[in-house]
Structures are given as structure tokens and as C-alpha cells.
Design goal:
Blueprint: H1 2-16, H2 34-48, H3 59-62, H4 65-74
Helix pairs in contact: 1-2
Length: 76
């Protein structure tokens, strides 16, 4: 999972030009908006091959890198 964490971190950095920690908020803090979250999800889907339904793209699943990784773990 270190590889996917690093991938997500780099994707976020490419969007906001900011390094974030694994437990740092990206949605609540408004670092990412709805459009950039969709961009991140598309990138994750392409990297992992895991389909992420729009209804599951919630703050609970996508607010931190650790939450994203935990969500992806449920999809394997």
C-alpha cells in the first residue's frame, strides 16, 4: 500500500502544489474541490483498475490519504 499512498500523494501535489501528510484533510480543508476530487478519483481508477462509484466518493472515504487507502482496501 505504500506505492498507492505515494501515488495519491503525488497526484494531490500535482493538483494543489502542496505536500500533504497521510492524515491531513484534503476535502474538509477545501484543499480539493469537487472537480479536483473527481480528477483524483479518475487517476486512482486508472492506476488501480478499481471502479469508484460516484455515490461512494464521500468525505468519509476521500478526506485523507489514509481514508482513501482504507476505502480502496475494501474494494479488493
Amino acid at each position: 500500500m505504500i506505492e498507492i499512498k505515494e501515488f495519491i500523494r503525488e497526484e494531490i501535489k500535482s493538483i494543489v502544489f502542496y505536500n500533504i501528510e497521510d492524515d491531513e484533510s484534503i476535502v474538509k480543508s477545501k484543499l480539493l474541490d469537487s472537480i479536483t476530487v473527481v480528477d483524483l478519483i479518475v487517476s486512482i481508477e486508472e492506476k488501480t483498475g478499481i471502479h469508484i462509484p460516484t455515490i461512494e466518493a464521500t468525505e468519509n472515504n476521500f478526506d485523507t490519504i489514509n481514508k482513501i487507502v482504507a476505502y480502496l482496501d475494501t474494494k479488493k
